[in-house]
């Protein structure tokens, strides 16, 4: 297994030729970004439909936290098999069938009348969209120059942000005309359409890993998890990354209503504004990373610096919640995207034929932790009695405060990389 701390040379054997950049964007990257769009929409939609779910099925914060995090758990458990599938069978054949699983989960969720069936549907959705971003990153590494991967990843994440945006005010508007069950039926139909687009429109480059034995590929994963370089490059950002997903995917909406004093419509508008800043943050950090490379500034410097400000935003949410919920929510989402830049850092640290496995291995850690954080936040918040479906500010202060303390060691680990030093190469 390659040392993750060393830069790698481009694997040109998998680079297809004879296609314009426009053709690559339209026929390769666009279908995968649509899948990533849907994965973000599914991930965050419960933050808006939460009041309807809680009212119809009598769910408290603890139950809702576990229900919503079922997506994250299934997403995490799917990562390693998906990584092997993407490297062995390619992005098109690996991703298209998974989207059909997500579509079936959406239908199960739509017709569920118990917490267990809701959890099963949510889990199928999470499993089905689990390879969306990784397939997009893998395709980018195959079809684009390696030096463009940071910017391409940032763009992919920005498109995913539009999915999160669609889950806010547009979803609130849709709920005026459809109930939440009908919404999930429509989402299932859209997911089937994206699956067909990926399967029939996306070409496959020459599958360089097709001849690799499955046993060897799994052994590579085992060696990866025994690599101290992999753990160092993962752990400095993982708590911040998982927190960003867990809070934005569910508890941001509840915090805006309970601690920020906003009604559901206004909270949806703030969530929409937050997704706009999330898109801006993804593009900004991707562009900044790409530009600073020219001056020898390491990508991990930009990533860790953004995470430091992200922690400050969380502290302000804990102690300054009632002053400007809009500004705090936007700061959270803008600087939270800095943690996602570690996807590109890790993907650039290995040869192209390994990007599927290394990216999904990292994603496994992120989503497992996000599952734990999202459920744990609900468990802590539920320790305080709700009044009219709302929880006291103190509940969020304790839940977010404990979680903030767990993120601080990551900053200390980041300092061991000596981020202030300039390197000859911009790859960690």
TrEMBL record:
<feature type="transmembrane region" description="Helical">
    <location>
        <begin position="233"/>
        <end position="256"/>
    </location>
</feature>
<dbReference type="GO" id="GO:0022857">
    <property type="term" value="F:transmembrane transporter activity"/>
</dbReference>
<feature type="transmembrane region" description="Helical">
    <location>
        <begin position="268"/>
        <end position="288"/>
    </location>
</feature>
<dbReference type="InterPro" id="IPR036259">
    <property type="entry name" value="MFS_trans_sf"/>
</dbReference>
<feature type="transmembrane region" description="Helical">
    <location>
        <begin position="21"/>
        <end position="43"/>
    </location>
</feature>
<feature type="domain" description="Major facilitator superfamily (MFS) profile">
    <location>
        <begin position="28"/>
        <end position="422"/>
    </location>
</feature>
<feature type="transmembrane region" description="Helical">
    <location>
        <begin position="63"/>
        <end position="84"/>
    </location>
</feature>
<keyword id="KW-0472">Membrane</keyword>
<feature type="transmembrane region" description="Helical">
    <location>
        <begin position="149"/>
        <end position="168"/>
    </location>
</feature>
<dbReference type="GO" id="GO:0005886">
    <property type="term" value="C:plasma membrane"/>
</dbReference>
<keyword id="KW-1133">Transmembrane helix</keyword>
<keyword id="KW-1003">Cell membrane</keyword>
<feature type="transmembrane region" description="Helical">
    <location>
        <begin position="362"/>
        <end position="384"/>
    </location>
</feature>
<feature type="transmembrane region" description="Helical">
    <location>
        <begin position="180"/>
        <end position="202"/>
    </location>
</feature>
<dbReference type="InterPro" id="IPR011701">
    <property type="entry name" value="MFS"/>
</dbReference>
<feature type="transmembrane region" description="Helical">
    <location>
        <begin position="326"/>
        <end position="350"/>
    </location>
</feature>
<keyword id="KW-0812">Transmembrane</keyword>
<dbReference type="InterPro" id="IPR020846">
    <property type="entry name" value="MFS_dom"/>
</dbReference>
<feature type="transmembrane region" description="Helical">
    <location>
        <begin position="119"/>
        <end position="137"/>
    </location>
</feature>
<dbReference type="InterPro" id="IPR050189">
    <property type="entry name" value="MFS_Efflux_Transporters"/>
</dbReference>
<feature type="transmembrane region" description="Helical">
    <location>
        <begin position="396"/>
        <end position="415"/>
    </location>
</feature>
<protein>
    <submittedName>
        <fullName>Predicted arabinose efflux permease, MFS family</fullName>
    </submittedName>
</protein>
<dbReference type="Pfam" id="PF07690">
    <property type="entry name" value="MFS_1"/>
</dbReference>
<feature type="transmembrane region" description="Helical">
    <location>
        <begin position="300"/>
        <end position="320"/>
    </location>
</feature>
């Amino acid at each position: 297994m390659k040392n993750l701390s060393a830069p790698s040379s481009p694997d040109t054997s998998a680079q297809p030729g004879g296609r314009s950049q426009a053709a690559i964007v339209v026929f390769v990257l666009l279908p995968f970004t649509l899948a990533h769009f849907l994965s973000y929409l599914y991930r965050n939609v419960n933050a808006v439909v939460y009041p309807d779910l809680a009212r119809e099925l009598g769910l408290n914060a603890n139950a809702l936290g576990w229900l919503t995090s079922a997506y994250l758990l299934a997403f995490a458990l799917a990562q390693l098999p998906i990584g092997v599938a993407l490297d062995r069978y390619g992005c098109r054949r690996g991703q298209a069938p998974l989207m059909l699983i997500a579509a079936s989960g959406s239908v199960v969720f739509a017709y569920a009348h118990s917490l267990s069936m809701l959890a099963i549907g949510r889990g199928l959705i999470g499993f089905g969209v689990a390879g969306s971003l990784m397939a997009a990153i893998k395709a980018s590494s195959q079809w684009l120059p390696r030096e463009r991967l940071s910017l391409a990843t940032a763009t992919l994440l920005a498109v995913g942000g539009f999915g999160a945006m669609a889950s806010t005010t547009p979803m609130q508007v849709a709920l005026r005309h459809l109930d939440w069950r009908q919404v999930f039926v429509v989402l299932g139909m859209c997911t089937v359409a994206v699956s067909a687009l990926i399967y029939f429109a996306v070409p496959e480059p020459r599958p360089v890993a097709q001849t690799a034995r499955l046993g060897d590929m799994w052994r590579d994963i085992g060696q990866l998890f025994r690599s101290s370089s992999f753990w160092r490059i993962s752990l400095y950002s993982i708590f911040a990354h998982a927190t960003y997903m867990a809070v934005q995917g569910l508890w941001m909406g509840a915090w805006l209503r309970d601690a920020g004093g906003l009604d559901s419509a206004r909270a949806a508008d703030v969530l929409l504004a937050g997704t706009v800043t999330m898109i801006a943050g993804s593009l900004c950090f991707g562009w900044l990373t790409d530009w600073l490379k020219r001056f020898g500034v390491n990508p991990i410097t930009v990533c860790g610096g953004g995470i430091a400000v992200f922690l400050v935003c969380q502290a302000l949410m804990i102690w300054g919640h009632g002053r400007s919920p809009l500004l705090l929510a936007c700061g959270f989402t803008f600087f939270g995207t800095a943690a996602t830049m570690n996807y590109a850092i890790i993907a650039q640290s290995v040869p192209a034929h390994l990007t599927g496995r290394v990216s999904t291995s990292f994603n496994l850690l992120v989503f497992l932790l996000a599952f734990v954080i999202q459920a744990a936040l609900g468990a802590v918040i539920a320790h305080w009695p709700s009044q009219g479906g709302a929880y006291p500010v103190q509940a969020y202060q304790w839940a977010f405060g404990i979680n903030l303390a767990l993120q601080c060691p990551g900053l200390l680990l980041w300092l061991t990389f000596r981020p202030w030093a300039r390197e000859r190469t911009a790859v960690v």
